[in-house]
Amino acid sequence: MSVLLNGTPLAGRVAVVSGASSGIGAATATRLAGLGAKVAVLARRKDNLDALAESINRDGGTAIAVPVDVTDRDAVQAAARQVADRLGTADLVFNNAGVQLISPIADLRQDDWQRQIDLNVTGVMNVIGAFLPHLTAAAEAGRPADLITTSSIAATRILEKFSVYSGTKAYISHLTRLLRVELGRKNIRVATVEPGMVDTELPDHVTDPDASKLMADLIDQIDVLQSADIAETVAFMASVPRHVNLTEITILPTAQAI
User: Which residues are catalytic?
Assistant: First the structure.
């Protein structure tokens, strides 16, 4: 994606990015830092996080690695305290951790169902619970405050075998609409990005052969999205004037028909 933003429009912002060890999360953390934000990167894979933070710092940005499993509520609360101590109050939260495990419902892969619910729903809520006080304080101080969560076009498309994954993403998209009712009047912007096919490691977790073929064919046949495309979009959403809330942005490869 060509760069849309220049300079340091996010200077003075403190950003938190979950699911930052690869893909969209890593790209977005790097872009936010490049635009002037101090960034805390959260994920389970410590080695990846450390390498990402080192890369950002080496390039002149400011980043800290905070290894955490977002499904552990107490650990996320501790991470929020660490961010406050080391960087200050977070005013930009990119709630991005997630997993995609596709299978026919009749296969009864209940461990896969639970893993998606734990990460895509409970993990998202744990991040909100830990960082909403940060966002509230930032907004009360007159600063921009952003809660942006990664959903998916699966939230609204009817895709066979995607039942549980799609259900978790529909939860996120509708939750955002509901949260805006409460938080918008407090000057906290609430938004989702809903990408189509992105060339990340997420499809690597898909074991169903039909779903795997669908994704592999898309990557082979069309010019799919890159993580940098989503990163630039998130950065733009956070850079617009404080009174502007881009609430739901669906991002599709131009040639993706489904």
Answer: 165
